Description:
- Helices cover 34% and strands 17% of the residues.
- With 548 residues, it is α/β, with parallel strands linked by helices.
- It has two domains: 75-273 and 410-541, 3-Layer(aba) Sandwich (Rossmann fold), CATH 3.40.50.1820; 276-403, no CATH class.
Amino acid sequence: xxxHTGTRxxxxxxxxxxxxxxxxxxxxxxxxxxxxxxxxxxxxxTGFIRASALAVAIASLARPAEVxxxxxxxxxxxxxxxxxxxxxxxTARAGRIPIxxxxxxxxxxxxxxxxxxxxxxxxxxxxxxxxxxxxGPGSNAALVHLIGFGPKRIAPPPGAKPxxxxxxxxxxxxxxxxxxxxxxxxxxxxxxxSRPTRAEYGAEFYQTRGDAESVAxxxxxxxxxxxxxxxxxxxxxxxxxxxxxxxxxxxLETRGTEVRGVILxxxxxxxxxxxxxxxxxLGLPSLAVAAFTNEKLAPDLQRDLAATMKQxxxxxxxxxxxxxxxxxxxxxxxxxxIVRGVSRFTGLDPALVDRKTLTVDRMQLGNYLLRRxxxxxxxxxxxxxxxxxxxxxxxxxTKDPSLQNLxxxxxxxxxxRTELGYRSDLRYQGPFGGGYPPPTAFRGDWMSVKWKRxxxxxxxxxRALEQAIRLNPTLRVLSGCGIYDLLCDYYGNVWxxxxxxxxxxxxxxxxxxPGGHAMYTDPRAHLQLKANVAxxxxxxxxxPPRPN
Length: 548
C-alpha cells in the first residue's frame, strides 16, 4: 500500500523575520523589538528627488548580473510519502545557491539543488546528510534523483512502451535513501538549472578541479544556510560523479570539514594502483558476462553465470595478466593459447583478437558479438540491444540502446514545477547540449567538448580520494558496480580493494550488483543497493567508541 500527499509551504525570504505575520523589506533591518522607528519629514526640492531617483535606477541597471542574481528564493514544500509500511513526513527545498568568488564576493555561478529533510523531533540527534550527483561530466541529477534515491520516482505506467507518448507516473520510490539519510541532489554548474553568471566564468567550472571545488563550496554554503553543520556528512556520485566525489572529499577535508563516507557508483575505485596489463585483464570478466547474457559462449560456460564469472576472474588474474605483461616475449604457441582464451571468454571470433596486444575492447564486443543478428550491445548495460549502425563513427552515446528511455524529460519538469513548485524557463540541461543558440562546431555544446582538460588532471582526480583519506583516516568508502556495465569493470574494483594497504582496506567495501551502469534501474539491484547504503551510513555515522 503506497500513498503520498504534498502541501506547499510559503517560502521565507532572506532577511524576513521568522515569526508569523512579520513582513520586512529585504535589506532593511527590523526596528528594535517593541518599538517603532521615528519618522521625520524632510523637505527636499522636487528636481533633486527626480535626479536622485534617476541615479538610483541607472545604478540598479548597471549592477553586474552576479549581484542582481544572488538572492534567488528557495522554494519550500512539505510532503508525506509511504514507502513500504512506513509513512515519511519531509520538507523539500528547491532553488539555486550562489557560488561566490571569495576575494570580492562576486557571484560566478548559481548551483541548483533539490533537498529532502525528514521531519524529526528537535531533541533528536542530527540525521546524516548525503549530497548526491550524477556524472558525465555534464549530466544533471535527474536520474539519481527521480529513478534512484529520492522519495518519489518517475516510471512509465504498466504496459507502456518506450516512446509511445504515454504520460509517466510520479510514485513513491521503494529504493529511496530518505529513511536513512537526508538528501541533497546537486546539479553542478553547466547542468540542470545551474549556470555560470557570465559565459566567461564557465571555464573555471568546466574542469576537474574547478568542478569539485565549486561543489565543495556549495556544500559549505548549504550546511551553513540550513543549519546542518552538525549532521554527519556523506557524498555520493555516479560515473564521472565518482571522480567528482573524490575531489570534493579532498577539498572539504583540506578545509577541515569532516566527511564520514563516500558512495561511489559506476566507475573504477579511485584508490590503489595496478599495472596496465592487470587493468586490461581485470576487464575480461565484464566481457564474459556480456557474452553469457547474449548466449555467445561455449556450452560449458553457458550453464551458470556465477560459475562462468569465477572462471573468467581466475583466468584473467592467473594467466591473462601475466601474458599481457610480457606480450612482447611470448612464443607463438603461448600467444595462440592466449588468443583462444580471450575468444573463449568473450564469444568473439579469434580473428578479432589483436595478436600483438592480445586484447579486444568493449566497442569491438558491442559491434561484433551480435553482428550476424544486426544488433549492437549497449555499453552501459549489455542486456540492452539496438540496431547495428556500421556508419556510426565516432561512437554516439545518444544512440546507445542502454541510454534510451531511462527518463521522461516532460515528467521531470512537471515534478520540479508542480510537485516542488520550482518554476524556471531555463533549459534543464544534460550532457549533450540542445539549447539555444545551436553550436557552430561538431558537438560544440556537449559538455565533454567544452570540458577543459589539463595535463595531469585525471591523475590528480584519481589521487584525490587518497589525499582525503590521508587527512581523515576514518573516512569510509562504498564502491558499487553493475556486472552488465562495460564502463565499470566490476572485478577490477573487487581486486583493487583487496590489494589496498590494510589501514585503508578495512574502511573500503565493494559490491557488485545485477545491473548496468545505473544499477538502480534494475529493481533487485535497487533494493540491494538501498540496504547496503543504509548499513554503510549507519556504521559510518555512528560516533566512535570511547577509549577505555
